[in-house]
Design goal:
The chain is 66% helix and 0% strand. It is mainly α. The protein starts with 26 loop residues before the first helix and ends in an 11-residue tail after the last helix.
Length: 188
């Protein structure tokens, strides 16, 4: 009995799915592994962004202390009432820290909306003060008797409150991304 054998070319080109070593692993497990790796990457990013934002949010409150210490050391002390104005001069660091904190909150999926709104307010409130007058006008205490000066004073106070709120949210975010690990109890 004769059999006829015909040889045709294969229409499939490239790698075959079942020829790769990963094909032995079920697709559900591959998706689970990829999801775990992505969660770990997000956790590491949110930790880094939370620490960086905490530093940047705290700098506007710490940098004026350097000026006060330097002034006291060189016998040219600064008035204490100058501290809030120096904090507001460095408020741009708080806004950058707020943006990093917002990115960290998105990665950690925690407190996204309040952090975003407070960061936006911390950015927009000083611009209102700049639009109403000269930048140095907001630091002249005699101008606060005028309505424009009162508006500027209110925006400055709200900016300081937004910066303090960002500091609180930063502490909450650090508490979230660095959870307290309980030590296992030993049976002795």
């Amino acid at each position: 009995m004769k059999t006829k054998c015909t040889i045709t070319t294969c229409p499939h080109t490239g790698w075959r799915v079942n020829a790769t070593p990963e094909s032995d692993i079920p697709e559900e497990q591959l998706l689970e592994i990829a999801a775990r790796e992505k969660a770990e990457r997000n956790r590491r990013r949110s930790r880094f962004l939370s620490v960086a934002s905490a530093v940047l949010i705290g700098l506007p409150f710490a940098l004026p202390l350097v000026f006060f210490i330097n002034g006291a050391r060189t016998n040219y002390p600064l008035p204490v009432l100058l501290y809030p104005f120096l904090v507001l001069v460095f408020s741009f660091l708080s806004v950058v820290g707020g943006l990093l904190l917002y990115l960290a909150s998105r990665k950690a999926n925690h407190l996204r909306k309040p952090i975003g709104w407070i960061t936006l307010a911390a950015f927009l409130l000083p611009t209102i003060g700049i639009l109403f007058g000269d930048y140095l006008f907001q630091y002249d205490y005699t101008s606060f008797s005028k309505p424009v000066g009162l508006i500027i004073l209110i925006t400055l106070l709200l900016t300081l409150l937004c910066m303090l709120a960002l500091g609180v949210f930063s502490a909450l975010m650090l508490k979230k991304v660095f959870p307290k690990r309980l030590k296992p109890e030993s049976d002795s």
